[in-house]
Amino acid sequence: MTDNAVEQPKDDVPPVDQGQVPLPPMDASAQPPAGGAALAVGGANDFAEMSQQYVKELAELGEGLRQRATTVSADAPAVIQSVQQQIEPKARELIDAVADTQGAATAHPRAVTQTFMWSAIMLMASSLAAPLGTNILGPFVGIFLGKAGAALYAYIGIPVAAYYLVRAPASDAEARFTMLGLFAAQGIIVGFMLAYSYLVSCPISALTPLIVAVAYPPILGALGGSKLNTTGAVVGAAVGVNLLLGLLAGFNSFPYFLLSLLYGGVAFAVLQLLHKFGTTPDAQTHVYQLTTVASIVLAHGLVHMLFGSAAPPQKR
Questions:
Q1: In the 8-state DSSP scheme, what is residue 311?
Q2: What's the domain count of the chain?
Q3: Residue 227: which domain range?
Q4: Where is the composition biased (Low complexity) (predicted)?
Q5: In Å, what is the CA distance from 111 to each residue of 23, 276, 289?
Q6: Is residue 50, in this structure, part of any structural domain at all?
Q7: Is residue 169 part of a domain?
Q8: Residue whose C-alpha is closest to residue 264's, from 232, 222, 288, 302
Q9: Quick one: which of 94, 102, 116, 149 has the most CB atoms within 10 Å?
Q10: pLDDT tens digits for 29-58?
Q11: CB–CB of 189/153 below 8 Å?
Q12: Is residue 288 part of a domain?
């Protein structure tokens, strides 16, 4: 080859990478892989498999519940008998204590005063909290509890919770203020429940225990310590003051009279229990405070249920 050789021009062809295999041309008639159909078939299989699994698990759960119900029904008579054997002696003791009016008045004045004075404070807190349930917090109580749930919480749930919380308190003050908070909450719930229930008139719930707390020590000293005379005079004073105030204020209605008697009956029963179990100045009175407040609130609710009207009474 000579120096005069002419270099041939090269076409503009892009260089080919020696390690790259050229792709075949795309066939326009080729169809995409059937991925959607495969997913649909897999989903159907998963649904059938899970359905069988869940049906099997529910059947096993039902069989377990059936066996447990059979066991419980077989053991129920023995459990009921055991509970009955534990409760009956205590219930009989309480009934006998309330019914026994013979002998000397043995309730210590400090125990009586402590029981009924703090009961009056708790009832006042409940009464003051009731308008919150009627006017402000009522819608929230209605959302979370409803009427039936509110009744269960107010008349059963809160007293039972208070009973278990004060059985072994760290201190007397802690037990009393725990009950105070619970019965204030009860007042809110009761205010919601009785928002559209009206009585012609009713006595102040805190007045009866307050009168008992004030009247018991002087009456005990004046009547010589007879249980029947002392208890009758103290309860009579409480009922009499309520009726006198109702007469002076023009609250001469049957619900007012009935509630005065019911509140007096609660005071009588608790005083009788204190004659049996509250004979020392350091006697634990939390359960008797709880009994007084819960019973008075329940009596108030029952009278509302029987005699309450949906419209406010007309003023004469």
A1: S
A2: 1
A3: 103-307
A4: 28-37
A5: 102, 12, 10
A6: no
A7: yes
A8: 232
A9: 116
A10: 445 445 556 656 666 677 777 788 878 888
A11: yes
A12: yes
